[in-house]
Amino acid sequence: MSFKLRFKLVYKLLKLLKKGAEADIYLTLWDGKKAILKIRQKKDYRNEILDKRIRMQRTVRESEIISDIKSFGVRSPLVYFVDPKKCEIYIQYVDGTSVKDLSNPKIIKTCEEIGKIVGLLHKNGIMHGDLTTSNFIVQKGKVFVIDFGLAQRTDKTEDHAIDLRLFKEILNSAHAHIMEKAWISFLKGYKKIVGISRHNRVLIQVSVIESRGRYANVV
Amino acid sequence: MSLECKVQVFLNNLTPQKSNAIRKALTPDNINFPENLSMEIENVNNSLVFTFQGKGNIRTLISTIDEVLEHAQVVLRVIG
Amino acid sequence: MLGLGIESTAHTFSCAILEKKGKKGKILSDIRKIYRPPDGEGIHPREASRHHAENSPEVLSECLKKAGVKMTDLDIISYAAGPGLGPCLRIGAVVARSLASYYKIPIYPVNHALGHIELGKMLTGAKDPLVLLVSGGHTMILAFLSKKWRVFGETLDITLGQLLDQIGRSAGFASPCGTKIEELASKSTNYVNLPYVVKGNDVSFSGLLSATKQIIPKGLEDACFSLQETAFAMIGEATERALSFTGKKELLIVGGVAANKRLSEILQSVCKRHNCKFFVSPREYAGDCGSQISWTGLLESSTKQGVPIEETFVRQSWRLDTVEVMY
């Protein structure tokens, strides 16, 4: 009887917020507080062995890295609980607006803050791996970074350049009208944290990557 | 020792329309040539004259002439 | 409107004639000759261009004959101006320029990648799709936004076509090897662990390439199966991310690798999950062909004049996202 009741209660508090590419995001409660439950669902199109490997790896890595980055002052949601077998994570709910949905002038302004955050991550040997404008949330003027499923511990210039290039690609495609200004603003913030020489080194690598894959036509 | 070389190729007995077609078809690719290589095309009487000049690597010159003549032949074959 | 299209960016030399009535297009003929390098070798640009030069007159005359059209009936001529291999591109351009100047027909340089997209849209009826372009020359995820096709994801190193070709060649097949790999893969269900690298909406195949080469000696069929499963799942995930980011409700796959059944199956499953319509270019027109060039030229001619012959250049690395689409 009591089991049934509990089950019902949990069920009621689950609300699907988003069916993402990486995971399904539910709004739920953890210890009486609003929380996000992130479930990396099995993907039917992926080979089962491969699928299990990817989902577990990302779940564990995400929870570890979110805890790591707290130590050097990057704002991200707290991790409440991790279940690697079920590929589930309970994290703090951040009530705010995704940068993607801000007005153009605000996006440009926020990009400097994003640049600083990315600079801090890189300086501490973390690559985010999925730097899109929808992975930054503004809450009362403070910027939170989410979604560390593709993050990696790495000090390689190439990896940091891949992070920057992806962000540039997103600005170029989804925010084409403000691309120039937003990118300058991002780099300003990034440079403040990592310093001019590292900033230049990473940017050179960005152009190397750009000239590499894209439109290369040697068959 | 670097070789300095000038090669002229004459395509004879062409109607003005055909020689015009060849000229027009080949000229736009006559850009971004290596520094030591040049090509000019001119009409002389009933002939179309290609003048190639090259310095240094003779292979580049040969392969350029090879490609240009191949193109001229393509032009004549497709306009029949 | 009748348009002749000439494709010669890489392996394929092709001429096609299409008719455009209003917004509708009809393929009257599409003739191709494909250059095959010796087994185990890749494409040699100059050799491919010799093949194209040799075959261009017959391909052209066959194309006119099949369409029942005379040169003088044509309203426009289009050619693939890039991106592609220089010597190959020049043959197509030379053919187009000679015809345009001799018969006084307006000429249009066309971006090859744009050609894949436009023909795909015309043949499938997709309206505003997220596009996955997978071929020997490209691996890109694109969406249309204020007059241009924008890149939402792509390969960070080699393309999907190159990955399949290089594996195929190291096993001794003639490129393009996609079909052969698909055939071998279908004979195995034994998955061997291989590196899976997705970075945001982008993918990287170079690690997968070297790891797959190492497992080939242990069993070619298993290697092909595991390679396809890993590479296509990466593409599936990157596509899923781009779909979820852009919120597009249609997905269109174009390019030579679009013909692969397993890839289609994976992307269909992605579409189902995201409640999105799935379109794939018919096998016959997924790869490089004159139709893609002809159709795009016809679309351009609705808003633009032809280009003066003196300015009909070829551009080996002509980026699709620099092309402004006015029609």
- From the N-terminal CA to the C-terminal CA of chain B, the straight-line distance is 44 Å
Number of extended strands of chain A: 10
Largest sheet of chain A: 5 strands, antiparallel
The CATH level-2 architecture of the largest domain in chain A is identified as Orthogonal Bundle
Give the count of helical stretches of chain B.
2
Proportion in β-strands of chain A: 15-25%
Instruction: Tell me the domain tally of chain A.
Output: 2
Helical residues, percent of chain A = 40-55%
Q: What is the CA-atom radius of gyration of chain B, in angstroms?
A: 13 Å
- Shape label of chain A: globular
- CATH hierarchy class name of the largest domain in chain A: Mainly Alpha
Concise description?
The complex is a heterotrimer of chains A (219), B (80) and C (327). Chain A has 219 residues and is of the alpha+beta class.
Question: How are the SSEs ordered, and which strands pair?
Answer:
The complex is a heterotrimer of chains A (219), B (80) and C (327).
Chain A (H helix, E strand, L loop, with lengths): L1 H11 L2 E5 L4 E7 L2 E7 L8 H23 L8 E5 L4 E5 L4 E2 L5 H20 L2 E2 L8 E4 L2 E4 L6 E2 L3 H18 L4 H16 L1 H17 L7
Antiparallel strand pairs in A: 1-2, 2-3, 3-5, 4-5, 6-8, 7-10, 8-9
Helix pairs in contact in A: 3-5, 4-5, 4-6, 5-6
Chain B lengths: L2 E9 L4 H11 L10 E8 L2 E10 L1 H22 L1
Antiparallel strand pairs in B: 1-3, 2-3
Chain C lengths: L1 E6 L4 E10 L2 E11 L10 H23 L8 E7 L3 H18 L3 E5 H13 L5 E5 L4 E7 L2 E7 L5 H11 L7 H8 L12 E2 L2 E2 L2 H10 L4 H27 L3 E5 L6 H13 L3 E4 L2 H4 L3 H12 L26
Parallel strand pairs in C: 1-4, 4-5, 6-11, 11-12
Antiparallel strand pairs in C: 1-2, 2-3, 6-7, 7-8, 9-10
Name a few traits of the molecule:
heterotrimer; A: 219 residues; alpha+beta; Phosphorylase Kinase, domain 1; Transferase(Phosphotransferase), domain 1; 2 domains; five-stranded antiparallel beta sheet; three-stranded antiparallel beta sheet; 48% helix; 20% strand; B: 80 residues; 2 helices; 3 strands; 41% helix
